[in-house]
User: Fold this.
Amino acid sequence: MTESFASSTLSPALRQAAHGVDVPEDPWPGFARRERRHQRTRLIRTALAASVGIALVGVQTNVVPLPGWAPGIAVAATPTALLDAPPRGALAGDHAWLDTLRARISADPPLRIDAPLGAWKIGDRDRIRLVYGSDQPGHRVALVAVPLRFGLLTREALVWYVGPAGSGAQQMRYGGHSEGDDDPVMTLMQAYPDRAGFAVVVGPAESTVTIGGEPRYTPKGTLEYQDIARADGGGVGFAVLPREPLPSEPVVRVSRGDQVFFQGGLGGGPYAAVDPTGPEMDALLAAARRPARGTPLDDADLRNFVQTALLNSHVPVAGTTVRVRWSGSEHGQAAALLTVQAAGGGVIAYAMHGDERTGWWTDLRLLLPAEGVDQRPVGWRVRADDGTRPPTGQVRVIAPPDAARVTVTVGGVPPATVTLDASNAGIAQVPPDQPATLTAYARDGGVLGTTPLPPVETDTDAGGLPGASAATRVTP
Assistant:
């Protein structure tokens, strides 16, 4: 009775309380819906990222083209000294010709400049501009600034185009280009086997351009060039070259006042080679051995030394006198001091050592006046080991034939006598960073001649010809 009453009393109350409780719905369907939504978002983002990556790779490898006007990242300096100047040359005002050249350049194959995955393509054709353009005897030459693009990377190159005089833009052909560094001078040399060639140099506006022909070593011990350049406005030089190979490369100098923008050889040959086995060379070598002091050189070493000296000085075999002043050894290799003198010119002293196994090294190049050259002592700094290392404190001294003694003077220290061997050669001690003077005396005590000790050249190829720098001549 009691249990039945309690059940009948509590059931309605419990049911009413149960209806009042907020029971949450099953969470799984909501979680599943949200996860599907997140997966779709992740898939879309991944696809977009992959698409952008693929597009960037395609753009950077030039597979996906970008319009030339699209902005990019500049990766190389441009030669502002040339680009900031107004166009030069007679073609600067021929706008129709330049418009045709722009279209021609835009259709050209990509330029094969240093790109790791491909070639640079022409950018915005409207930004192609003329730096220099003119007609010269037999030739039309144009230097053009061309915007380039390699994917997102951009640069500006200076490109040469050449053709016959008066030729249309479609006839112009590619002649070379800059490599993108901030070089203030552009040079071009074209040589042909069947007709006259040319050399053109474009430097900063208002600069002076000289193109030197064959060098002349004067009897006074100076170096002179015949200037074969003709000016074509400020900062431009043009030279007509003969059909036959040049004996040596022309030397270019671009300067403004005391500022030298460029000085060096103008490559592009071909050049007439020195025949090391010809009859003229044989006669030259036979005369070079008389008289000889020291250990005689074998024929191969002598021929190598003489050929190297002739090539380096741009002196022809015909009419030239070579003398071996001394020969011996350096670091166990053949060594020699020889002089080269073109007919009626100054005298160039060369000191060399080496062999076929390790190569040959030039230790000295010194242009001397012709007068009194046989009475001058000559010395050069000895390098360590094979000649590639910095010089030691040792100086090899070669006395003239009639010298009784030779002294070396370093700074304010009293002169020190150099001990000479039977070949009139000796070794002196001079600190590598100190200048010195060599003096030769006759038997009666009179001075025969004096010669400064020149510094060591670090790069004979970049130093120009003997006499071009104060380090390679004794005449001021």
Observations:
- The radius of gyration is 38 Å.
- The mean pLDDT is 81.
- The CA atoms of residues 144 and 275 lie 40 Å apart.
- Helices lie at 2-20, 28-60, 80-83, 95-106, 279-288, 299-313.
